[in-house]
Write a structure and sequence with these properties.
The chain is α/β, with parallel strands linked by helices and 585 residues long. Helices cover 63% and strands 10% of the residues. Strands 6-9-10-3-11-12 form a six-stranded mixed beta sheet, sandwiched between helices. A four-stranded antiparallel beta sheet has the order 2-1-4-5, covered by helices on one side. A two-stranded antiparallel ribbon has the order 7-8. The two termini are 35 Å apart. It binds adenosine-5'-triphosphate and magnesium ion. The site of adenosine-5'-triphosphate has 13 residues, from helix 10.
Length: 585
């Protein structure tokens, strides 16, 4: 599966009704509140619709008849109607505001959970900044649609239908003439909508690009300063910021194109009422009071229509954002769990059978690899930089699946193990250790339920028992030493020590160390070696190292390069292969 979200061909257009269906799913739990809000909206619209008719009646009966008591009574009634409609307006805003926020909350959760379920390959291909923008900005556009636009949408439509009924029933000919400019609007709206949505999509996309750029330059700030390349990132930022600026302006223009046209139609409608209405009055077919009611209804028809224009733009923005969110939600983890896989007795803890692998969009890194690892043995992978050692180890831990062939863990396809079971069996210390902003303790206990409730004293005992006590001494505040994920509160070597303790305490069956000692002094390295040697003899160790002294104890050495994995036999032979490679390249 292709995981790159910003590739044009992966962008699937969702049909209008499908979007409607999906959006409905998001709010289906809010059904009750939405129905109440709709009832409130209907009451509100009815109140506003009755008022003009009452005004017309007051003019024709009481003002013309000079009955001032009647005028006062009706003025009071109309005022009461307006106050009631004010209250219902507030109620509606409150109700739908809550719905919008809850949708936002659920949607963000949903995306985040989806992201968590996706494999490493997804994160290789997408920038965090863009993903953050989708989680933050795009969901908020949907929230705005739900909290502000949805009910107003219905309110406007309801109001328009009501006003239309009043207009046509008061005088069908005048009514029809008043409504005629609206037909023209319908046509224009239909024609412009796809363009408006496209402009909004582009604008959201470049907002995502802007986030990615910010993220990248913040992450690499030290390098930027060290190489004095502030100008370079400044220029790049300027570019994406410029793009975002012009895209946002274009979207803004697109979103507001319709508003003046709607205003024009509204004015033409009123003009028609005035001209035609006055003509009707002079021929004695109409009264002043009716004309005033009529004008008011024409207003009640065209005002919501004008609002609809703005809402329509809102809706297009929400649709564009939904497309971006949906791109994530429809992704499936391409590392599925296999069921009913047979178990073979292959006498190996880990076996590669005709394994091929290539990264998406990359060349083949591993070609037809066959490999059998026995329980409790120590294996070493050596080879030139970029030769495929980390890739081989990543396949062993199922960060990726082979593009062909299969990998057996304890004689069973590695794809048949659940994430929990697999990660319990396989400990992987990455070349670049990944830690979380927290304390040493939290980082050591990460993913280890066994000791999660232990206090510092208990945990220190466990650490001492595992022979890791000396390592903990490398941290001045012990378990409570603060760690920052991207900062330098601890050194790279210290990070590797934490990753090491984390892996050892989990007591995995297979322990993979990818350059785990590359940043550690020779004394501490010796310590790690002793710890490794003292591990249960059942633990299979796979050590990737550039420094050959770290793999002296290996039972078997493999040389990994240009898609091949060759048994090196002895240490000397391994050395020779490396030297030979270096001489030839
Ligand atoms: N995430 C990735 N996406 C695409 N290609 C990758 C990715 N990771 C590695 N590669 C490519 O795969 C090849 C093998 O890389 P790998 O990291 O396995 O090498 P290595 O032997 O671990 O090197 P080193 O000694 O520098 O750690 C390289 O050509 C590299 O460019
Ligand atoms: Mg590597």
């Amino acid at each position: 599966m292709q995981y790159n979200l910003n590739k044009e061909d992966t962008h699937k257009k969702t049909a209008f009704w499908q979007v409607g269906q999906k959006l409905w799913l998001l709010i289906s739990e809010e059904k009750k509140i939405i129905i109440i809000a709709l009832i409130v909206v209907i009451i509100n619209s009815l109140l506003s619709l009755i008022a003009p008719r009452l005004i017309g009646h007051t003019i024709d009966t009481y003002i013309i008849g000079r009955d001032y008591h009647g005028v006062l009574v009706f003025a009071g009634i109309i005022l009461a109607l307006y106050l009631l409609s004010l209250i219902t307006s507030y109620l509606q805003i409150r109700l739908m505001g809550g719905v919008g926020q809850r949708v936002l909350y659920r949607l963000r959760n949903k995306i985040f959970n989806k992201l968590q379920s996706l494999p490493v390959a997804f994160f290789n291909q997408n920038k965090a900044g863009d993903l953050i923008s989708r989680i933050n900005n795009d969901t908020d556009k949907i929230n705005q649609f739900f909290s502000q636009s949805l009910v107003q949408f219905f309110a406007s439509i309801f109001m328009m239908i009501g006003a239309m009924i009043f207009l046509l029933s008061l005088n069908i000919r005048l009514g029809a003439a008043t409504l005629s400019p609206a037909l023209f609007l319908l046509l224009i709206t239909r024609l412009l909508s796809p363009w408006v949505k496209r402009k909004n999509l582009t604008s959201s996309k470049s907002l995502g690009g802007l986030s990615s750029e910010i993220q990248e330059s913040l992450n690499n700030f030290k390098v930027i300063i060290a190489f004095n390349r502030r100008d370079f990132f400044k220029k790049r930022f300027q570019e994406v910021n410029d793009n975002n600026y012009s895209d946002a302006i274009e979207a803004g223009v697109a979103n507001n194109t319709l508003t003046p046209i709607y205003g024009l139609a509204s004015n033409i409608g009123q003009l028609i009422v005035l001209a035609y209405g006055l003509a009707l009055i002079s021929s004695g077919h109409f009264t002043i009071g009716l004309l005033i009611s009529f004008l008011s209804y024409a207003n009640s028809f065209y005002n919501p229509l004008r609002q609809l224009a703005a809402l329509w733009a809102n809706f297009q923005t929400a649709l564009a954002s939904w497309d971006r969110i949906n791109e994530i939600l429809v992704l499936e983890n391409n590392l599925p769990l296999l069921e009913n896989t047979p178990s073979v007795d292959n006498n190996a803890i880990l076996e590669f059978k005709n394994v091929n692998f290539k990264y998406p969009d990359g060349q083949e890194v591993l070609h037809n690899i066959n490999l059998k690892l026995s329980k409790g043995k120590i294996y070493a992978l050596i080879g030139p930089t970029g030769g495929g050692k980390t890739t081989t180890a990543s396949l062993m831990a199922r960060l990726y699946d082979p593009t062909a062939g299969e990998i057996l863990l304890n004689g069973k396809d590695i794809r048949s193990y659940g994430d929990e079971e697999r990660t319990k069996k396989i400990g992987f210390i990455l070349q670049e250790p990944i830690l979380f902003t927290s304390t040493v303790k939290e980082n050591i206990l990460y993913g280890n339920e066994k000791y999660s409730s232990y206090d510092n004293k208990q945990l220190e005992n466990i650490i001492a028992k595992a022979g890791l006590g000396q390592l903990l001494k490398r941290f001045d505040k012990g378990l409570d030493t603060k760690v920052t994920a991207s900062g330098d509160a601890v050194s790279l070597g210290q990070k590797q020590l934490i990753a090491f303790m984390r892996a050892i305490l989990r007591q995995p069956e297979i322990l993979i160390l990818d350059e785990a000692t590359a940043n550690i002094d020779t004394v501490t390295e010796k310590l790690l070696e002793d710890i490794l040697n003292n591990l249960s003899s059942d633990t299979t160790k796979i050590i990737i190292a550039h420094r050959l002294n770290t793999i002296e104890k290996a039972d078997e050495i493999f040389f990994v390069n240009s898609g091949k994995l060759i048994r090196a036999g002895s240490m000397d032979h391994a050395m020779e292969m490396l030297l030979h490679h270096n001489r030839n390249s």
